[in-house]
Amino acid sequence: LDAFSKWGRPEIFNSDQGCQFTSDLFTGILEAEGIKISWDSRGRAVDNIIVERFWWTLKYEHVYLHEADTMWQAEKGISKYISWYNSERTHMSLGDKTPDSIYHYQPATLVA
User: Fold this and answer.
1) Out of 15, 29, 39, 45, which could bridge 21 as a Cys pair, Cβ 3.0 to 4.6 Å?
2) What is the mean pLDDT of the chain?
3) Could you report the per-residue pLDDT of 33-49, keeping only the tens digit for each?
4) Which residues contact 12 (CB under 8 A, 6 or more apart)?
């Protein structure tokens, strides 16, 4: 639900058929929000190649290189990596630009 408040509600949520995406809890949240659910075919990583490539990159550029002793450390490190990945890491597929610069994302500022 935090993602919805930050990014808005998608019309359709597409994923693989991993247990985290097919669980009653997860699908119940999507259904309660009126979001259509779409799953890729079993064993078809190429159906969602962009996301599969991102997970590979995250694992090889961060997770396997930075051991976390607690779930909190892992979450903090991965969050920091994703922020860097979107705002500072250039991508060949985007003409050596960052995703934030292409999609014009501006982080929210806190109002005091």
Assistant:
1) 15
2) 86
3) 999 998 877 666 666 67
4) 35, 36, 37, 38
